[in-house]
Design goal:
The complex is a heterodimer of chains A (about 290) and B (about 425). Chain A is mainly alpha-helical. Chain A has helices at about 1-10, 25-30, 30-45, 55-75, 85-110, 115-120, 125-160, 175-200, 205-220, 235, 240-255, 260-294; one strand at about 10-15. The two termini of chain A are about 40 Å apart. Chain B has helices at about 25-40, 75-85, 115-125, 130-145, 160-175, 190-205, 220-225, 240-255, 395-400; strands at about 5-15, 50-60, 65-70, 90-100, 100-105, 180-185, 210-215, 225-230, 235-240, 270-280, 280-285, 285-290, 295-300, 305-315, 320-325, 335-340, 340-350, 355-365, 370-385. In chain B, a hairpin with a 2-residue loop joins β8 and β9 (about 235-240). Classes of the chains: A mainly alpha (about 290), B alpha/beta (about 425).
């Protein structure tokens, strides 16, 4: 029986590869279960043997919200269009933390899976992609937290405790939230592919990433609104794709007061697309050396 | 008959040794880039030594064959398996494969210490290429084979190493690919479990799967494989019936009378010759148990070295286990500030090894590193005789490896 099966099996040819290597989607699809298993593993082990467990997922954005609200909202007294500052920062923190967690995890993913890379074959793209997916669970919890906030304000109005501030409510733009979320994800994947592949060859990357992420947070509108940026620098500022990511996300949550700056948004999207395509190409064309040099 | 399942044609794998392999820092790349600009004249690049781990290897494997791969350490066995399982890319040549390959280069690849036994079975199964439904179906079987039922919910970091290995092997043993590639995974676990693994491997072999099996354990190779490949320094030197190939391997170990090595590398000191000496001067390979054996090591140094120590280890050829090892510095003996050529001897006045074939490895050591190492440089045959005068001949199967000095006292009244 098995001989009949094997003769039907397509012949595979292993030989030194030359030229540009594209993405083998069929193979990726064949390994989809491994992809989910690795993400599942990442999620499982992240909170094993922690006392607070999943609570950390809520505590992290919550403390950031408090800090940002106090520093930017109260002390620096930045403009908020009359919307509560906690909501403004939370709407930005969700995509930001998703991005920074995903980039942090996927950049290190290859070298921390060195034992897999040198002992077993599967499409290497699965490694950074699955560790990106593994960080998404935290973001979903963050989104829940966001809705808790929104409903908190709405109930406050129901019972006449507070007046509903600008931007709080369920806007039609909410429908677009998954799109902006996916956009943030693509930006993270683009960075993750580049950094993880570079990290195999140059361990310097490991030191650059935390530093780079810290800078990136300051030049992205996480603690403030991008409308704080002077009009004539706006396009230059938007080269950073996270500007578009965060503005878009904020708009989908807080409504029309928070329209993104569309020319800048398109510029950012182009940047993401560029790094995504080159990242995949770079990854695919260096991966054949991974097992030898990792 | 039908086309081969694996056909390997002219496979080679080249590694670049030196700086670019290890400490791969951007700084060094930049520095070497700058150096190249200012240094137009190319001097022979010492940092870019090239090394062929496999050279022009060709063979074919038919459906259902179980093929052993043997050779010294560093002969290219593992590289061959890595190329076959697509972990690393060949530098030359081409391989055609028909069917799904599962490679088992290590037991427990991807096991995570924090995860429970149950979780690791699923994870490891997926990594080895099983689907989730396949794992669920075989789950009970896997658990039963491993014998760790009671600890399924315990993180594997709390497992004993034996339990860990048993669980890991059990997952691997339930793989059902068309082609299975295995590297020395049986060298783990306790003896009883090893036997069970060999049994399982035998089942796999009989079920019509194609298996490539690397091992240093000649007994296992002999039992499982009808055909074997012998690799030496990256080249395929023999391909045929396992019995013949193993004999060829063992006699090939028996290198010519003198090795007379010249400077071959950048080391400051190296071994030029090793001889096994009987009764003061006669060089030979076979010794009777209880005779005296001296191993003479000739060395040479390039310059004055501060500290020169010697090491010897004796390995059993069949099981590939280390029987004995010693270095002169354990005894507080080493040469200091030596230069040029010289000789050293280590003597065993009363060779108490059970008859069989052994392999001698010699090292030349500095304080904290090795100048030179000659793996399996000499074969030592311990010959059987009636050493006890009772007509018994000692054998490895019955009497083990080492014949300890002992005495039977059978006086019940004492």
């Amino acid at each position: 029986m098995s001989s009949a099966e094997t003769t039907e099996m397509p012949e595979r040819i292993i030989r030194p590869k030359t030229g540009l290597i594209g993405v083998n989607f069929r193979e990726l699809w064949r390994f989809r279960e491994l992809f989910f298993f690795l993400s599942w593993r990442d999620v499982l082990i992240r909170y094993k043997q922690t006392a607070l467990g999943v609570l950390w997922v809520i505590l992290q954005p919550l403390t950031s919200v408090v800090v940002f609200t106090v520093i930017f909202g109260k002390m620096a007294n930045l403009d908020s269009h009359g919307t509560p500052y906690p909501l403004i920062t939370l709407a930005a923190l969700i995509p930001w933390q998703m991005f920074s967690n995903a980039v942090g995890a996927s950049s290190l993913s290859l070298i921390s899976s060195a034992n897999l890379v040198t002992k077993i074959y599967f499409p290497r793209l699965i490694i950074p992609l699955s560790s990106t997916l593994g960080t998404l669970v935290d973001s979903l919890v963050g989104i829940l937290l966001l809705f808790v906030f929104i409903f908190g304000y709405l109930f406050g109005r129901e019972f006449g405790l507070i007046e509903v501030p600008v931007g709080v409510g369920l806007h039609w733009q909410l429908v677009l939230m998954p799109i902006f979320f996916a956009y943030a994800l693509l930006a993270a994947i683009a960075c993750g592919l580049w950094f993880s592949a570079l990290n195999v060859q140059y361990r310097d990357v490991k030191y650059v990433i935390p530093f780079m992420l810290r800078i990136a947070m300051l030049v992205s509108p996480v603690g403030y609104l991008s409308s704080e940026i002077p009009e004539n620098y706006r396009l230059l500022y938007s080269i950073n794709p996270l500007v578009g990511v965060i503005d878009g996300f904020r708009w989908s949550v807080l409504g029309s007061e928070f329209q993104p700056y569309w020319p800048g948004f398109c510029l950012g999207a182009t940047v993401v697309l560029f790094f995504l395509v080159t990242g995949v190409m770079f990854f695919r064309n260096t991966e054949r050396k991974f097992a030898d040099i990792i | 008959m039908s086309d081969p399942v694996i056909s390997v044609a002219g496979i080679g794998k080249e590694y670049v040794l030196g700086v670019s392999m290890s400490g791969n820092m951007l700084r060094e790349q930049i520095a070497s880039g700058v150096r190249k600009i200012f240094q137009r004249v190319e001097r022979p690049n010492r940092q870019q030594q090239r090394f062929w781990a496999l050279k022009d290897v060709s063979f074919r494997v038919d459906q259902g064959e179980v093929v052993g791969v043997i050779g010294h350490n560093g002969a290219g066995k593992s590289t061959l398996l890595k190329v076959l399982s697509e972990i690393t890319e060949p530098s030359t040549g081409e391989i055609r494969v028909r069917g799904r390959i599962a490679s088992l280069l290590e037991v427990g690849t991807g096991f995570h210490p924090e995860l429970s036994g149950r979780e690791n079975i699923y994870l490891n199964g997926a990594i080895l290429g099983m689907t989730r439904s396949e794992i669920s179906r075989k789950f009970d079987e896997i658990v039963a084979f491993s014998g760790v039922e009671r600890f399924l919910e315990t993180p594997v970091k709390r497992f004993s190493s034996g339990m860990y290995v048993r669980l890991a092997f059990s997952v691997a043993a339930h793989l059902e690919p068309e082609i299975l590639v295995i590297d020395e995974v049986l060298a783990v676990g306790d003896l009883e479990f090893q036997k069970r693994c060999l049994g399982k491997m035998g089942d796999v072999a009989r079920s019509g799967r194609t298996v490539l099996f690397v091992s240093h354990n000649m007994t296992a190779i002999h039992d499982l494989c009808e055909r074997s490949l012998l690799l030496n320094h990256g080249e395929l030197v023999a391909d045929g019936a396992t019995g013949d190939v193993i004999n060829g391997y063992l006699s090939g170990l028996n290198t010519d009378a003198s090795i007379k090595r010249k400077v071959s590398n950048d080391a400051d000191a190296w071994v030029t010759d090793v001889r096994l000496i009987y009764e003061g001067s006669e060089s030979r390979q076979g010794f009777k148990m209880g005779q005296s054996l001296c191993v003479e090591i000739s060395y040479e140094t390039k310059k004055k070295v501060e500290h020169l120590g010697f090491g010897i280890s004796i390995e059993d050829c069949i099981q590939s286990t280390r029987v004995f090892a010693s270095v002169s510095s354990i005894h507080g003996i080493q040469l200091e500030n030596v230069e040029g050529e010289g000789r050293a001897r280590v003597c065993f006045p009363d060779l108490k090894l059970v008859p069989g074939r052994y392999m001698v490895t010699i090292t030349l050591n500095a304080k904290s590193f090795q100048y030179d190492r000659l793996e399996g440089v000499r074969i030592l045959d311990v010959l059987g005789q009636d050493e006890l005068g009772t007509g018994w001949v000692l054998s490895r199967q019955r009497n083990g490896v080492v014949w300890l000095n002992h005495e039977w006292l059978l006086d019940g009244r004492q």
